[in-house]
Amino acid sequence: MLQAIERESAERVDRYPTRTAGRVAHIERPDPVVYGRIESEELATFDRDGFAVLPDLLDAGEVTAFGAEIDRLAADPALAEDDRVITERASGRVRSIFEVHKLSPLVAELVGQSRAAGLARQVLGSEVYLHQTRINYMPGFRGTGFYWHSDFETWHAEDGMPTPRAVSLSIALTDNHPFNGSLMVMPGSHRTFVPCQGSTPAEHYRESLQEQEIGVPTTEDIEALANRYGISQFTGRAGSALLFDSNLMHGSANNITPFPRSNVFLVFNSVENTLEEPFAAPGPRPTYIGSRDFTPV
Questions:
Q1: Does domain 44-254+266-270 correspond to CATH entry 1.10.10.10?
Q2: Domain extent listing, the chain
Q3: Is residue 3's pLDDT more than 50?
Q4: d(CA 24, CA 41)
Q5: pTM of the prediction?
Q6: How do residues 99-117 score in pLDDT, each as one tens digit?
C-alpha cells in the first residue's frame, strides 16, 4: 500500500507549483474557467472576469432570517470552544465559523437550490459538492480584513485540490458599502496563478485563519496584477451575492466604520476535481475546512 502511495505521488503532475523556496514566475492558467454551458444572463461575463454579481439572491425576509441565524451562531455558548469558530487575534471576537451548513438548517436548505448549487453546475459543468462553508464576520470599528490572496493557492497547497475547478458564492447579509471592508477583486486575474514562497508549517491553518502570512503574494506580485487587471469592488445591499472563481485574486480592508459586514460563503468544487494529498503541506487540513466528503449536493 505504501509503495502504491509513493508511486502515485511520484507520478503526480503539479501544474500549479507553490510554496517554493525562491520566486517563481506567474503561471498562465492551462485549465478552462467555464466547463459547462452558461444559461443565466447574470453569469455571461464569468469567463472573462472570473466573477458575476447577483443583485437579489435573497429577498428581504430571507436576509432578516439569515441575519438572526448568524447572530445566534456567534453568540451560542455551545460553540465557544468549537474548533470551527475562529476568533480575531486581538479582540477575541468571532471572525469566521466553518462548516456552517451543519450548524444552520437555513444554510443547509439553501445549498442545494438552483440559485446556489445550480449556478456552480453551470460554470463547472458537472455535479458539485461542498468543499467548504463558512460565515465571515466583520464587525464595526475593529473588523479585520483579509489580505490579497487566491483561495485556490491555499486549497491546492494545503487541501490537495488539483485544479481551480471550484467556485465560491459569497452572500451579503449586511449592506456592502465601499467603506466597510467590502470585497475587492481583480477582474481577469483568475487566469494567472501566482506561486507563493515559503514552506507550510504543520497545522498552519490555526494561524492562517486568523491572519495569513504564508500563501499570500508579494507586494511586487500584487502591483503587477493590479497594473494588468485593475481593481473592482463588490458592493450592494444585503441579499446580493458574488459568484467567483477559486483563483480570482481578492482581498478586503479593515472595517473602521460603525457598519458591520457579514457574508455567508458556499464553496462548490467539481466532483471531477476531488481532493488528493496536499501539494505543499505536511498533511491535509481538518475536514471542516476542506471537506473530503465528495457526495454531490
A1: no
A2: 44-254+266-270
A3: no
A4: 38
A5: 0.93
A6: 999 999 999 999 999 999 9
